[in-house]
Amino acid sequence: MSTPVFAVAAGWLAGVVAQLVPGAHLDETQVTTFMVAATTAALGSGWKWLQGWQQHERLVADGKAAPVRSSRERRSRKAT
Description:
By secondary structure, the protein is mostly helical. Helix content is 76%, strand content 0%.
């Protein structure tokens, strides 16, 4: 799972953007707060996706939903 990598990248990018935006005069505390907020949002999004995927897997195991085909399976179907 690459969620922690994206969370760190989101925090870093938020810090860069906060320092480069013209007219935004943020002190070190405000930049850090902005970075933490971006990291938290990325982690929350990853957590929500994981919960939804686990629910889908449970429904597939119970026979209540069709499994998701991989892109490889879709390409092989189109070729035949």
